[in-house]
Amino acid sequence: MAYHRKLALVDNRTGLIVMASLFCLIQLLVITSRIYARRLRRMRYGTDDWLAIVAVIFVLGLNGIFLAGTVQGAITGHSQVVDDWPVTSPLEHLAQKYKYGFQTTEKIAFGLIKLSILFLWKRMISPIRSFQVCCWIMIGVVTAWMIAFFFATIFQCYTQWAWNWAPISFFLTQCTNTLNMLTVFTATDIVTDVVIIAMPVPIIWQLHLPTAKKVGLTGLFMMGLFTIGAGIARMYIYLVTSYDKEDNPDFIADFTLFILWSEIEVNVGMIVCCMPVCAPVVGKFRDCVVSRLGSKTSSHLAHRRGKGSKEYLTDRSDNPYFGDKSSSQSRADG
């Protein structure tokens, strides 16, 4: 009868612990690569970098909340259901606490990731005034969006803090209309992601670059579609489980689904945020691998390698941000 019981029951606690642990390691690797990439190019840190550094702290915090909740059983657990309605239990009480902590923290994390990407776009494409104006408008929109939903979540039960982890029946009737608030939040999260990811694409196709490189850069930016996909999945799960409680009475199972997709979205978003900057690190790693392979089979490679492949191996301008004339302008702007 219940949707989540048939199609989306998540109870693999060990798997979720491994996933969250890997996300922590990946985030540390990604932010370290971003910092190292700046040093490789001898570029000073910009607003986008500082925002990314602060954002990764909040993302790691979300991973910590997810890990703790999973270890304690608040995530992957199940509510006690009597007459198709969850009955208050210590586990549900604990799940409510983790829900409040996670949903409060995620508002800042998502906002900082979006702002970091916008400041990166602004830094990369600085000579185009109309694009700069669009960036500033979106920066204002995202900042207001982040602050509004953060405080709306903080004070969703006014200043009655204990109500935030009260029994679900009490919470739904005594606090603000959190169902509608979260619906608006998830919808606007998707819309802002679509706008931010699409913003630089028309500019890329106006640059004087080979078509293959334009396609490659567009594909790099379009990695943000994975974030959008996770956001859509989260919104779908939320709508199905929250607005049809008669068929979805297991609050903890529903909470697990929702927080799982939030966890995936925020971690993928952080990776996408840093990918355009990490291109020099990827290029350096590629060159090191090629150099080592070449030293072992130098005679064989010397026979087969032509002029075109030599140029490929020495070309480090994989991104207009790091390689063409516009990069000098970007460095000057900081």
Automatic annotation (TrEMBL):
<feature type="transmembrane region" description="Helical">
    <location>
        <begin position="100"/>
        <end position="121"/>
    </location>
</feature>
<dbReference type="InterPro" id="IPR049326">
    <property type="entry name" value="Rhodopsin_dom_fungi"/>
</dbReference>
<feature type="transmembrane region" description="Helical">
    <location>
        <begin position="49"/>
        <end position="75"/>
    </location>
</feature>
<keyword id="KW-0472">Membrane</keyword>
<feature type="transmembrane region" description="Helical">
    <location>
        <begin position="217"/>
        <end position="238"/>
    </location>
</feature>
<comment type="similarity">
    <text>Belongs to the SAT4 family.</text>
</comment>
<feature type="region of interest" description="Disordered">
    <location>
        <begin position="300"/>
        <end position="334"/>
    </location>
</feature>
<dbReference type="GO" id="GO:0016020">
    <property type="term" value="C:membrane"/>
</dbReference>
<dbReference type="InterPro" id="IPR052337">
    <property type="entry name" value="SAT4-like"/>
</dbReference>
<feature type="domain" description="Rhodopsin">
    <location>
        <begin position="34"/>
        <end position="282"/>
    </location>
</feature>
<feature type="transmembrane region" description="Helical">
    <location>
        <begin position="133"/>
        <end position="161"/>
    </location>
</feature>
<feature type="compositionally biased region" description="Polar residues">
    <location>
        <begin position="325"/>
        <end position="334"/>
    </location>
</feature>
<feature type="compositionally biased region" description="Basic and acidic residues">
    <location>
        <begin position="308"/>
        <end position="318"/>
    </location>
</feature>
<feature type="transmembrane region" description="Helical">
    <location>
        <begin position="258"/>
        <end position="282"/>
    </location>
</feature>
<keyword id="KW-1133">Transmembrane helix</keyword>
<protein>
    <recommendedName>
        <fullName>Rhodopsin domain-containing protein</fullName>
    </recommendedName>
</protein>
<dbReference type="Pfam" id="PF20684">
    <property type="entry name" value="Fung_rhodopsin"/>
</dbReference>
<feature type="transmembrane region" description="Helical">
    <location>
        <begin position="181"/>
        <end position="205"/>
    </location>
</feature>
<keyword id="KW-0812">Transmembrane</keyword>
<feature type="transmembrane region" description="Helical">
    <location>
        <begin position="16"/>
        <end position="37"/>
    </location>
</feature>
